[in-house]
Amino acid sequence: MKVILNVSLKEGILDPQGKATKHALETLGFAGVNDVRIGKQIVMSLAAANAAEARAAADKMAKELLVNGVIEDYEVVLQ
To answer: Domains along the chain?
Structure first.
């Protein structure tokens, strides 16, 4: 089963990469960009019997290794 883990910084955590990207977009003439937040996406293929098992495995991986729970949030998407 294909599992996508979308990881982003929690609200209130400074995102210097997002700020630099916003500034670059404005410099290039893209108006109306209010905010930019940069995150990461982890795509995995898991051998799971069902969606619940895949979600549980992805949650465990996220909490134990892939996500810094202090500063990051994550979302699991199953495909």
So the answer is: 2-78 (3.30.1280.10)
